[in-house]
């Protein structure tokens, strides 16, 4: 059995998997691969699957499966798994980090110090304590974020049409209701037909003036042009963003927009998470081998 590691994983992963067969990162051997391991970079399209006649199992280290043609994989008899349970803490910590970085002007403070400036009077921080955080998408990551925000004395509300009850956040029945009352809005939805372009100029008008938006979910759930315009007008006081239209983004209006703190899709990239992902992959391949 050939296992193809197609994207970046923990350096110790190949050693964990050699008991199942040969492990390679040589992408030119796709046609021989029975198992392919991907993160977000490899796109498992129809064409990709057509070039992989031996393929039986795709494991996406991480959560979002929007880079896999799930219908065509099913049609070809290829099983697809993610490692959803692994990443929640890593991504929630990044969402929280971005919220702290934006509200405390960390990027600007650092940049100005590097340039020899002293902006002590200009940079006024804002506390999270006593503010309302609106979480859009109350799944694993959203829930971990809610726990952290409550520890900081925030009031936590959430909008998720598929979640009926939560002990961590007060559920709102409409997104508009959440946006009207939230000082911070953090996005944790998958990219679907329903969520693509959800945060556009019409919904941005529903945010509180001076609200802060954080997105560690999927880039395409926001209309970047509209978010950039809201930052320029002051409607949004800040935007912390980890996720992009493509990795890396070819061009984005957010680069030139004010009050943006950007990270290069680092949500899942903690040492601990990559180890957890490796353990789950080992388990999934073990299950696959014993079911053969
Ligand atoms: P999850 O499936 O546990 O939670 C997603 C939640 O979104 C679900 O509760 C679902 O009901 C909700 N949802 C779906 N459609 C919605 C809508 N229209 N409005 C509001 N809520 C909606 O997934 P998770 O593990 O919490 O991950 C959430 C997302 O985070 C993933 O889909 C992925 O896109 C993203 N993610 C990003 C990174 C990163 O590196 N930045 C890493 C992992 C995951």
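Sequence proposed for the structure above (292 residues):
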């Amino acid at each position: 059995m050939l296992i193809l590691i197609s994207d970046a994983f923990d350096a110790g992963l190949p050693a964990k998997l050699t008991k199942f067969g040969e492990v390679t990162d040589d992408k030119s051997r796709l046609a021989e691969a029975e198992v392919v391991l991907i993160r977000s970079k490899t796109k498992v399209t129809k064409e990709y699957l057509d070039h992989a006649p031996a393929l039986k199992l795709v494991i996406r280290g991480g959560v979002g499966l929007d880079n896999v043609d799930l219908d065509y994989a099913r049609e070809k008899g290829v099983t697809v798994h993610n490692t959803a349970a692994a990443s929640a803490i890593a991504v929630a910590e990044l969402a929280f980090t971005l919220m702290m970085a934006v509200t405390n002007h960390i990027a600007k403070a650092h940049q100005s110090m590097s340039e020899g400036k002293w902006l002590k009077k200009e940079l006024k921080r804002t506390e999270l304590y006593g503010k309302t955080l609106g979480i859009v998408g109350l799944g694993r990551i959203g829930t971990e974020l809610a726990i952290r925000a409550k520890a900081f004395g925030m009031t936590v509300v959430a909008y998720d049409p598929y979640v009926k009850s939560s002990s961590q956040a007060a559920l709102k029945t409409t997104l508009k209701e959440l946006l009207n009352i939230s000082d911070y809005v953090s996005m944790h939805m998958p990219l679907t037909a329903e969520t693509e372009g959800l945060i556009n100029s019409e919904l941005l008008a529903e945010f509180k003036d001076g609200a802060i938006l954080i997105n560690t979910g999927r880039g395409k759930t926001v209309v970047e042009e509209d978010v950039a315009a809201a930052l320029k007008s002051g409607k949004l006081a800040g935007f912390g963003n980890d996720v992009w239209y493509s990795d890396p983004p070819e061009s984005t209006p957010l680069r030139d927009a004010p009050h943006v703190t950007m990270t290069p899709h680092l949500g899942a990239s903690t040492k601990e998470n990559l180890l957890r992902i490796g353990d789950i992959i080992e388990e999934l391949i073990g299950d696959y081998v014993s079911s053969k």
